[in-house]
Amino acid sequence: MLAIDKTIAADSVAPVDPVALEKSISSATEALLGYRQSDGHWVFELEADSTIPSEYILLRHYLAEPVDTELEAKIANYLRRTQGNHGGWPLVQDGPFDMSASVKSYFALKMIGDSVDAPHMVRAREAIRSRGGAAGSNVFTRFLLAFYGVLSWRAVPVLPVEIMLLPMWSPFHINKISYWARTTIVPLMVLAALKPVARNPKGVGIDELFLQDPKSVGMNKKAPHQSAGWYALFSTLDKILRVVEPLFPKKLRQRAIDAALAFTEERLNGEDGMGAIYPPMANIVMMYDALGKGPDFPPRAITRKGIDKLLVIGEHEAYCQPCVSPVWDTALTCHALAEAGGEDTLKKMEQGLDWLKPRQVLDLKGDWAVKAPDVRPGGWAFQYNNDHYPDLDDTAVVVMAMDRARRQSGSKDYDAAIARGREWIEGLQSRDGGWAAFDVNNLEYYLNNIPFSDHGALLDPPTEDVTARCISMLAQLGETAETNKAVADGIAYLRRTQLAEGSWYGRWGLNYIYGTWSVLCALNAAGVDHQDPMMRKAVDWLVSIQNKDGGWGEDAVSYRLDYKGFEDAPSTSSQTAWALLGLMAAGEVENPAVIRGVEYLKATQTEKGLWNEARYTATGFPRVFYLRYHGYSKFFPLWALARYRNLRSTNSRVVGVGM
């Protein structure tokens, strides 16, 4: 880790120049408006690591699609640039070596045509082999290698497709796992039953990445997050299934495959794809191929076309996004614009909200309804279309933005949308008082111990950040702990989950800075006294981790299972903005740390009015998959600067909205 000097002078800090501040806000607002799409919404690139671009290349060769030389060359450029100094590929910029990302990236580059003797390939191979070889890959990588015939099926967990026929009361059921796991596993189970082999016209393999015969590789070991007892139990079950699965009646297997196909076809979701995320979409294309459905078979063709819509193709590089984020980007941008103010800016904000309004899911009960059958739909998805899987976090943020517009204009245009969004969120509170991202009461924690769940992200349980957002929404709409049981239970959840150091975990943003910002906003909106020990501890923690340059930063290493306290990281614009917004929500607008943070954002703003942010500050799955939202450095710093200006111009210095 980089050593960041935390020594900050305790003497007084010069006040922020209001003229320079206004210039920064105006410049950032103009730049953000410049990214507006013609129909009024915003969507920014959503970048993950090298695994998905690599999987995209390997999918094309699995299917023996015609080689797109120009596209492959651009993806190869991206992969070569993101290779780490350690020789392998990281999950975040400048991050440590990751085995699975490195194996897939090497395989993709070799498939594209890079010589195994090229210096970067030699470095990658040596890095992989010196760390035990490709046998250390995770479950998803092992499945890919099994499809390519590199590994035998002994190296992956048994995934009998007959799981589709299990009743809800059984210990494992697809509705007891997260939406992203569910949509990925269903087509994967069909593939595991059929065991197809990649066409791989070039005949490329990666045996050289193993220290032993790849065919001799057995199951992976227990993951660090897994309980030895539970893992032993599930591993024994896996061994039993390995013996009995071939004996399952053929009619039963066909019934199960039919059930998987019915599940998939109900949720195909056009070119946006099932779940609107890359892994299930790729698995679906492979599944139909294994079932003998040609490239022109409509469900396969439409899904395959949808995958290409995830590509970001530049002049010299290209990569594949895991999904797209237009609802999230537009809603957050609207909040930043509401804070920035100005007649034209607010008009553009309302046009963004008008784009969002018809995307509310009002008629379709998605998978969430299995555990909440009496709740009416009313949420928004993260992507353009994903009606089966609306997102509570997005919904809360959209509702709060609409409520802000309603307050400013006095219009009743958003009343019905706000009411339905609120109703849906209240109906999806889990029994522990928290809220999850997509489901309710997804609390079957024992399932993270099955061999398939080496990533530890099989579930979608309540989290501090999403809980905070839902409380923020309810509180902004006028509810308090005294008037609303959901708010009271949510605040109790947050009291229980605060760490001793004063921070809160951030599941979907990196990490404790994100979680603490989210919770402080919620507690303020809900009327919790700023002198409450819970809030004072959080404020003290945020101030204590400020970097000497005035900014805040946090690295993905903070998700380590043995977290013992904050570790220094370089400042970023988005994490600095979160810290500032959190401190201001706690009544700290006059705190010297806030002034230093504002000055950091002003000093690091580019001539174009934006901020450069190469570091990853968001999370897909902790320790496994991280995200770089290209929009975060465009709207969060503006939001923080405008919030500071607005609070300084009032007597109360109190944030009157939920976030």
TrEMBL record:
Molecular functions per Gene Ontology: intramolecular transferase activity
Domain (Squalene cyclase N-terminal) ranges: 25-313
Domain (Squalene cyclase C-terminal): residue spans on this chain: 324-646
GO biological process assignments: triterpenoid biosynthetic process
Top-level taxonomic group: Bacteria
Pathway, per record: Secondary metabolite biosynthesis; hopanoid biosynthesis
Organism (species): Bradyrhizobium lablabi
UniProt keyword list: Isomerase, Repeat
Protein name as annotated: Squalene--hopene cyclase
Xref: Pfam families: SQHop_cyclase_C, SQHop_cyclase_N
InterPro entries associated with the record: Hopene-cyclase, SQ_cyclase_C, SQ_cyclase_N, Squalene_cyclase, Terpene_synthase_CS, Terpenoid_cyclase/PrenylTrfase
GO cellular component: lipid droplet
Coiled coil: none
UniProt family annotation: Belongs to the terpene cyclase/mutase family.
